[in-house]
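// run 5 | inverse folding | seed 20
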């Protein structure tokens, strides 16, 4: 199977602990990501959420934490209720002189049905918006700085 990983990287002018909190604490996540009923960065923890696409279709996302290395790596499965296929989202954090480089890798997208809504370019647009706009603005709005 030919796998194409989608990778989005960005350096934030905040420390790794702050970025880790933003990607693992549900009260912070809902300010830039999705509003989850519950979230725990523990292997085996399952969570779900709804998100609308640009045509107004609602998609139920089903996820399960598969790997956690506190403050540096979080991985979870990502699939859609009612559709075949499973993918994985990995957040990796790297210290860069007190700033944090976040590397997001979404793999397995090709396992989803070949329908327009689940095309790679939609995932690219979505993750670029989430990381390079929503998360960036989340940190800037709070004026969190390096420790």
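// decoded
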């Amino acid at each position: 199977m030919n796998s194409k990983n989608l990778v989005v990287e960005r350096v934030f002018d905040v420390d790794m602990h702050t970025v880790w909190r933003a990607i693992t604490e549900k009260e912070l996540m809902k300010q830039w990501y999705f509003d989850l009923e519950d979230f725990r960065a523990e292997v085996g923890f399952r969570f779900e959420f709804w998100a609308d696409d640009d045509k107004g279709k609602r998609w139920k996302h089903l996820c399960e934490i598969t790997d956690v290395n506190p403050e540096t790596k979080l991985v979870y499965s990502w699939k859609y209720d009612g559709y075949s296929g499973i993918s994985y989202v990995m957040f990796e954090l790297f210290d860069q002189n007190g700033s944090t480089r976040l590397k997001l890798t979404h793999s397995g997208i090709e396992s989803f049905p070949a329908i327009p809504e689940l095309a790679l370019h939609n995932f690219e647009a979505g993750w670029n918006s989430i990381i390079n706009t929503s998360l960036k603005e989340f940190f800037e709005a709070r004026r969190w700085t390096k420790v």
